[in-house]
Amino acid sequence: MTGTSVNMIGNKSMGIDLVADVIIQEMKKSTSCEIISDIRRESNGFKVYLLAFEKYYLRIGGMVSLITMLTEDESSQSADIIGTGGGSGLLNISYGANEDFAGKAVNILKECGFFFEE
After folding, report:
1. What are phi and psi of 116, to 5 degrees?
2. What is the CA radius of gyration of the chain?
3. What is the predicted pLDDT for the residue at 4?
4. CA-based, 20 to 30 A from 66: which of 36, 91, 100, 109?
5. Domain range holding 100?
6. Residue 41 CA to its chain's centroid (Å)
7. Global pTM?
8. Residue 66 forms beta bridges with which residues?
9. Residues 32-81: pLDDT tens digits?
10. What b-and-e string marks burial along 74-83, b requiring 16 or more CB atoms within 10 Å of the CB?
C-alpha cells in the first residue's frame, strides 16, 4: 500500500472546531469525497479531532483514504494528514492519487492559518 504523511502547525487564528468544519465542507465540495468519520474529543482544555475521508479515483480504479488529526490546547495547534491507498496492479502503483488527496487538505489548512514546521 502506498501513502503520504504531512505534519503542520496552526497559528491559532481560527479555533480547531471551525477548522474541522471548514475541512469537511471544502473537501466535500472540491473532491466529491465521502466523510467516513468525524470524531471530536475534548478533555481538560485539550481537543483532538479525527476526520476520515474516502474517494474513488477513476484513474487508478480504486479508493483513496485521507485521515486528518487536529489537536489543540491553550498554546498550540497541529494537524497530521495521511493520504493512503490507491495502489493498483502488481506493483501497487498509485499514480499520485494519495498525494493529490492529501494535498487538498494541506491547501485548506494553509487557508486556515496552518504552516509547515521548519
Report:
1. -80, 135
2. 14
3. 83
4. 91
5. 3-111
6. 17
7. 0.88
8. 53, 83
9. 899 999 999 999 999 999 999 999 877 667 788 999 999 999 999 999 99
10. eeebbbebbb
Rounded CA separation 116/66 (Å): 18
- d(CA 51, CA 37) in angstroms, rounded, equals 6
Amino acid code (one letter) for 109: L
Number of domains making up the chain: 1
Place of cell 493529490: 100
Q: Is residue 116 part of a domain?
A: no
Cell output for 13: 487564528
Which cell numbers hold the place of 26?
471544502
* Residue 76 maps to a domain: yes
Q: What is the CATH number of the domain that holds 85?
A: 3.30.310
Q: Give the per-residue pLDDT at 91.
A: 52
How many whole angstroms separate alpha carbon 112 and alpha carbon 117? 15
